[in-house]
Task: structure prediction
Amino acid sequence: MSARDISDLVVPRSGQSIWLITLSAAAMGFLAVFALALSVTSANLARGWSASLAQTATVRISAAAGELDAQTAIVLDVLRTTPGIAEARVMVAEDQAALLEAWLGPDLPLDALPLPRLIELYETEEGPDRQGLRLRLSAEAPGAVYDDHTRWRRPLAQAAARMRGFAVFSLVLIGAVTAAIIALAASASLASNGQVIKVLRLVGAKDRFIARAFVRRITRRAALGASTGTLVACAALLSMPELEGTAHLLAGIGFQGAGWLLPLVIPALVVALSWMASMATAFHVLRGVT
Amino acid sequence: MIAFEDVSHDYGGGPLFRDVTLRLEQGSFHFLTGPSGAGKSTILKLCYGELQPSSGKVSVMGRALAEMTRDQLAETRQRIGVVHQDCQFLDHLSVAQNVGLPLTTTGRDLTETDLSDLLGWVGLGGHANAFPPTLSGGERQRAALARAVIVAPTLLLADEPTGNLDWDMSQRLLMLMVELNRMGTAIVIATHDLNLIRFAKAHVNARVLRFSGRKLQIAGAEL
Result:
């Protein structure tokens, strides 16, 4: 009969506080996975939006019908000779129809609409001198307007960063609430096992031994609860219906590839929090026992 | 081994005893006797630090209990075997696990042979896997004695250890304590059983401390 075997048994297995720990750890593990997924997704979206918008720009040409082709040719020439522009192409009618379809529906009579001509351009990593480009365009093709998407990109990036901040704050809140619940449950467990503590002290057990016996029991239950909650949350994320497109949040919430290993951190964090919270509570309670 | 210097103890309603000064040496054998409520159990509890005196100083193994840290108190208790009047078991553990508890708390393993010998020694050989609530009063007291001696204590404190035992079993357990005393363990037994004290004095050089009024005195030859 090893000492470790018996020391694992000195705290009774029954007790409502132990079930409370399992249940709350499961709930917190579940919520933490969603907060983590939201954090990862919003970070990915922000990165994706910024990257895709950062290296593209549009030149819009508004001119009389007779001058439109000439201005287009001038703009293309300017763009071809501007350092930092990798590619420039005139958007054909089908491209413009696709852009407007979301608002105006299919089968648009584009010919009947006074639409500007659009030139889509892709920048090199260094990018062009934007101010210089704007000046050249206004001088050589007065109807051309260069739009580098800054006014779209900035609020999108800000919104995604703020969403990520909320998700991280949620994770911190979940951790704090988990620690508080486990500390309360540990305190209740110690209070309801006053006789166990008294007997252990009388036979010469040090506080460290008694605290460890309780902390082991509490931490194991917290690990069980958090693992279960994490698994259920991962299954829930996997069961999300696939949505077309990746530019909006609902389509991308979850993890990608090796990112699915990230939720494994949650049970480990809950175990660490449980250990610290229950150990601190145990020593606090034991100080009141002779 | 144990030293009381002008120790007094109050229990809310008034003084239980006053100005007790005594010194119990290593390897000694003492009985504490007196009427119920005189303070026999309190003296024992003061010896292992479950209670603190209202005034005065209690030292165990050369160190004042009041000055010990919690870990030092635990280490001192690891060298003291105590048979509590109410036994103090963990009811969800088996008899064997309860008896092995003092070793467990210090990380020492318990061999089946040692445990079997010890339980056989107190007449509980067939009860190793039983749980305390299923034991009779006498069996619980014998199990409590086994737990008290498993660490080979230098001091054994026993509070009415034969209170629930028949005379034969009482003599048998007392002789076990006499054997321990011969091996060097200091023994203090609180009892009101004068027959037990007389029986012990025939086998060991035991001193008797008797409560009289609120004082603790050495009893004379009338016992």
Observations:
- Chain B has a mean pLDDT of 89.
- The longest helix of chain B spans residues 167-182.
- Residues 174 and 186 of chain B are 14 Å apart (CA to CA).
